[in-house]
Amino acid sequence: METPIAVSPGDLEGTVVPASGSVFVQRDYSEGTEVRFDATFPPELSSLLDEDLFISIVGTINHHFDECERARAKIYLTGCLYCLVGYLPLLCIKTQYEMSLDRVDSYIETCNKRHLIPGGLVLISPRKRGLRVLEFQITNTGASQTRL
What we know:
alpha+beta, 3-stranded antiparallel beta sheet, 3 helices
């Protein structure tokens, strides 16, 4: 039996994880074009991940993207300000959307470290896939035969 690999939050950045396959969770367009992922549990993950944990992870990611997409007066005002000053602040300041994407990435790193990597899975940030899919890579490391 292999021992799980200890991973710090920045360890997955720029590294290649040996994968034996991937499971993709597609976008859900039933409520419009906002970024939202289908919370239907893929049967390919049934031996590796608990359905409730999967639904919780996808639900939290969807909630973060709902917060990203929500229109607020602050976003409109900063957009007008950027327009007035020639969008120069964007060279040194992140937008609200970019900060929200950073929160999603941070949540995914936490999920990977706490729940997924020990069970032989790695969740890839949707930012790296153009916000099209959630990718669960099945790795050759960890206790990949036990269910989380």
